[in-house]
Amino acid sequence: MNVLVVVESCFSNTHRFAEAVAAGLTEFRVSARVVEAAAQEWDLENVDLLVVGAPIHHRGLPNRLSRALAGTQGATPKSFGVAEWLEGMPHWEGGRAAAFDCGTGNGFINGSAVHQITRRLHQRGVEVLTSERFLVEAMLGPAVPEDLARARKWGSSLASFGGKTGETAQLWISARPQGPAGRQAEPEVLAPAKAAVRLSAAQQLAMHRPAPTATRSPA
Length: 219
What we know:
This protein has helices at residues 13-26, 64-71, 82-88, 114-123, 145-160, 166-174, 192-208; strands at 2-7, 31-36, 49-55, 96-103, 127-135. It is of the alpha/beta class. Strands 2-1-3-4-5 form a 5-stranded parallel β-sheet.
């Protein structure tokens, strides 16, 4: 399975998440390559899954004006980003993709770059199987450490449905158990041995726990 991760990053935070996603993929011996959108690479001939990631600027994808503003605050943005990459992307009928964005929160007020990424991919015949939001502590960063770890697990989950297509892949994603705050929990298939150890420990504890004694309820 070959995965291409296309990313735009102004303060390096989104790029760190992209690298974490790629690291999670490679744990399952998946070939994952991270490229900047500015490289203008559109060769998808041997790509099985496309992952596109961008920061949220003004509640959407970065544009020329938002990048210029980021530049006044210490960023080193490129003039060509994910929005332009998607505009130049050839039609990829039947292609599969995943999308993620990076922001300071999950609320409506924070907006979404994923929605625009998904819409533009659909316009090019691409099926977006799943998407995710990763958090930074402030506009300039740093990345929330727990979300860097979550990005790596998300990458691993992308590797685990590599053989699934269409509705099968979407059903697999929707069936994943939900973690805290509605986040999808790490699939047990990623660490079956660990799950078995937890179950065994729980069984052993139940076996050695003394039987409860009857107590009187207070009057």
